[in-house]
Design a protein that fits this description.
34% helix, 11 strands, Arginase, Chain A, nine-stranded mixed beta sheet, alpha/beta, two-stranded antiparallel ribbon
C-alpha cells in the first residue's frame, strides 16, 4: 500500500488539522469520493536554475483558501459537494530519487482509481505524469492524453542513466514507449519556443502524437480549438495533464520553465471550461514553483485551474443538476 502523507497542519476552529485544498475533508477513505486531491511533492532536481516545484502542492493548498466553489454564470453548482472530494495528502516521494518516488506515486494513484474515483494530482514537476499514467493505464487501457503545456515534454532522452531517460522533457516519450496511451489520438496543446532542440516538434509528431503548437492555437483561437477537441475526443477516455507554464509568465511567473507568449488567465480558464463534454477520468496540474512565484499568484491560479478541472469531472460523471 502506498504511503500517503499528511499536509502541513493548519488551525481549523479550535483544532489543528491538515491544510487541505479549499478546506475539504482530509481522508484516505475513498469509498464515497468521486474525486480525490493527491499532492505529489516531487521534482527531478535537474533544472539549472528553477528547483522548487516539490513545494507546489503545499502552495496550491494554501492559496486555494482564496478560491470559491461557485462559478456563475457557467457553473452554479458546487463541484466539491457533487463529487464528495477529499484531500488524501501527499504521496511519499523523495525529490530526485526516481525509481522509489515513481513507485509511490503510481501506488497512491492506483488506490484512488481502485475506489472508482478520479485523481486530481498537484505537482511537482512534469515527471509526475508518467507514474500517474502508469496507474491510469491499468484501469483505462485505451487512454488518450490531452497535454496542455508550453512544451511537448517529448524529447528523445537517449542514454542509459535514469536521469537522462526520465526527466521533465521526456515524460511523453517514455509514456509512448511503455504503451500507456493511444499516441495517435493524444494531443499536445500550446507548445511554443524557444526550445533546446529545433527538431522537438517534429520528433513529437514522429513518436505519433498530434500537436497544435502555440502559433496555430492562437491563430485558430482557444475556444474554437477546445470545441474541436471535444468533438474529436468525445467518445474517448481522457487524462488531462495541465502544465502551468501554458499561461504567460505575466500571470503565472512561478513555474519551472516560464515561456513568454502564453495564455492569459482569462484565456486559459476559458479554454478549460470549453472542454465540457470530455470523459476526463484523471488529471494533474504541475510545475508550480513557489520559490519563484510572486505573491502566490501562480499557486492561486493553479487553485482556480483545479476548480475548473473538478467541474469537468462533474460533467464527465453526469453529476451536474439540470
Amino acid at each position: 500500500m502506498a504511503k500517503i502523507g499528511v499536509p502541513t497542519p493548519q488551525k481549523t476552529g479550535p483544532f489543528i488539522g491538515p491544510a487541505t485544498f479549499m478546506n475539504i475533508p482530509h481522508s484516505t477513505d475513498f469509498s464515497k469520493a468521486k474525486a480525490v486531491v493527491l499532492g505529489v511533492p516531487y521534482d527531478g532536481g535537474l533544472h539549472p536554475t528553477r528547483i522548487g516545484s516539490r513545494t507546489g502542492p503545499a502552495a496550491i493548498r494554501e492559496q486555494s483558501q482564496l478560491v470559491r466553489p461557485f462559478q456563475p454564470p457557467h457553473a452554479k453548482f458546487n463541484p466539491l459537494e457533487l463529487l464528495n472530494v477529499v484531500d488524501c495528502g501527499d504521496a511519499d516521494t523523495t525529490p530526485s530519487i526516481i525509481g522509489d518516488s515513481f513507485k509511490e506515486i503510481e501506488e497512491a494513484a492506483h488506490e484512488i482509481f481502485m475506489a472508482n474515483a478520479a485523481p486530481l494530482a498537484f505537482g511537482g514537476d512534469g515527471n509526475i505524469t508518467l507514474p500517474l499514467l502508469r496507474a491510469a493505464h491499468k484501469f483505462y487501457p485505451n487512454l488518450v492524453v490531452l497535454h496542455v503545456d508550453a512544451h511537448t515534454d517529448t524529447y528523445r532522452g537517449d542514454g542509459n542513466q535514469d536521469f537522462m531517460r526520465y526527466n521533465v522533457a521526456t515524460t511523453f516519450t517514455r509514456a509512448a514507449e511503455e504503451g500507456l496511451i493511444d499516441t495517435k489520438a493524444s494531443l499536445h496543446i500550446g507548445p511554443r519556443g524557444p526550445t533546446m532542440d529545433n527538431s522537438v516538434f517534429e520528433h513529437t509528431r514522429d513518436v505519433g502524437f498530434q500537436l497544435i503548437d502555440g502559433d496555430d492555437l492562437f491563430e485558430t483561437g482557444l475556444l474554437k480549438t477546445a470545441n474541436k477537441l471535444v468533438e474529436q475526443l468525445k467518445d474517448r477516455t481522457v487524462y488531462l495533464c495541465f502544465d502551468m507554464d501554458f499561461f504567460d509568465p505575466s500571470c503565472a511567473p512561478g513555474v519551472c520553465t516560464p515561456t513568454w507568449g502564453g495564455a492569459t488567465a482569462r484565456e486559459g480558464l476559458g479554454f478549460l471550461r470549453k472542454l465540457k463534454g470530455l470523459n476526463i477520468v484523471g488529471a494533474d496540474i504541475n510545475t508550480v514553483s513557489p520559490p519563484h512565484d510572486v505573491g502566490g499568484m501562480t499557486a492561486f491560479l493553479a487553485g482556480a485551474v483545479a476548480l475548473e478541472i473538478l467541474t469537468l469531472f462533474c460533467y464527465a460523471q453526469n453529476l451536474v443538476p439540470r
